[in-house]
């Protein structure tokens, strides 16, 4: 929880048209709890319910959320052809194991990112 998360929560609450007191009743928490959320952000245990009530995704309320797909995009560097063949093979095998553990939707998203990055490096 952070001050920035609190500002995000306040903005989402304002956009919803609800007052803090109304939100507290709808969430089943005290008015003071909602005041605290406006200062420090919604507690992790209440993010999902609060987001649903505000009509947003839970990660939108958490300023500290890091999108793993975006991180992959930023940190991706294509393999250099000069990389040793054994190191290259080990990296491919490790990545294949990682992708195999992903959900089908996440694996498809990673595949799309890699295709897009490959197109970037080719141009």
TrEMBL record:
Residue span, HTH cro/C1-type domain: 17-61
Taxonomy, superkingdom: Bacteria
GO molecular function: DNA binding
Pfam families in the cross-refs: HTH_3
InterPro entries, per the entry: Cro/C1-type_HTH, Lambda_DNA-bd_dom_sf
UniProt cross-references to Gene3D superfamilies, sorted A to Z: lambda repressor-like DNA-binding domains
Protein name: HTH cro/C1-type domain-containing protein
């Amino acid at each position: 929880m952070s001050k920035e998360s609190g500002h995000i929560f306040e903005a989402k609450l304002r956009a919803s048209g609800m007052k803090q007191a109304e939100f507290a009743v709808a969430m089943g928490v005290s008015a003071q709890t909602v005041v605290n959320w406006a200062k420090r952000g919604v507690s992790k245990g209440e993010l999902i319910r609060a987001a649903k009530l505000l009509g947003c995704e839970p990660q939108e309320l958490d300023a500290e959320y890091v999108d793993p797909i975006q991180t992959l995009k930023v940190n991706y560097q294509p393999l250099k052809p000069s990389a040793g063949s054994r190191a290259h093979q080990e990296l491919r095998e490790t990545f294949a194991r990682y992708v195999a553990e992903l959900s089908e939707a996440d694996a498809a998203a990673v595949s799309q990112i890699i295709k897009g990055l490959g197109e970037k490096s080719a141009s």
